Amino acid sequence: MTQTLTLRRPDDWHLHLRDGEVLAGVLPDTTRHFARAIVMPNLVPPVVTGAQAAAYRDRILAAMPEGADFTPLMTLYLTQDTDPADVAAAHEAGIIKAVKLYPAGATTNSASGVTDFDAVRPVLETMAERGLPLCVHGEVTDPAIDIFDREAVFIDRVLDPVRRATPGLKVVMEHITTADAAAYVREADGEIGATITVQHLMLDRNAMLVGGIRPHYYCLPILKRGTHREALVAAALSGNPRYFLGTDSAPHVTATKETACGCAGCYTAPIALACLAQLFEDEGDLGKLDDFAGRFGPEFYGLPLNDGTVTLTRSDAPVDLPKATETGAGPITVFDPGRRIHWSVTG
Ligand code: NCD
Ligand code: ZN
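The joint structure predicted for all components is written out below.
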């Protein structure tokens, strides 16, 4: 029996589109399924001013596939030189929907990020006044802190103090990976949300490290132990509007991942929705996917819900998933969810 699932057209609240040939190659994988995406600003050099965000938005629009209906929601990369007046003007003009905080050195292209969180207080205060969300890469960079503990330590050392110092600041803790982060977001006072990725819902660190090292599962924050994955699944299925989808789809050409020092990032855009349908079905609550992928994000950002729909169809036989997306810079390996997927987007 064929089963179909119709969802409100979803949005991706954390996405890397890159630039140039990679942008042109990967953009159709997102526009096919998603109506909007919060586009990360960690280009080289990063997108730090309103003018740069507008120019990047125009490059994305110029790369759009024929007939696509997609709106990129732009972000600024916060540095210690960011001018609060420029942030306010870019927000006022509708150019940006969020500002991204990378602790310096925490992840791919984050060298210009923040080392002194007090130094950016004037920008954060401007954002709090305007209701402009701060998207946070929540990991400390202290070399003394084990990579598997960096998110939990960040909550105590940085996130909670920053939120207390700037009351009213709206924060999205991006790509949460631990039970600690899920609990903090659930229990914190004030306006706080969290994005959750496909890979952190589907896999734990054993998938990356047992029986051989699998570079395509290496992303930041790194996959954690299974108990953390279970906490994330519980959060995504809880119906709590603070948790919503952000794929963190992060394309790197295959050669830069299959190497002695591989880049961090999982490329999930082409298969994210099919994987989520399988996951929610396997967890016995397919009905929760619609709000997680299509309602809680726009409600948090104060944006209208999408009008359109996407339809997924379940087949008895597992579907063949795409293995790679070709770009002018080389192929990008698509994330392998490590389980049979019976769903595909059909309309
Ligand atoms: C992202 C990237 O490649 O830009 N990588 C990742 O592992 N998630 C950066 C990020 O979101 O941390
Ligand atoms: Zn990311």
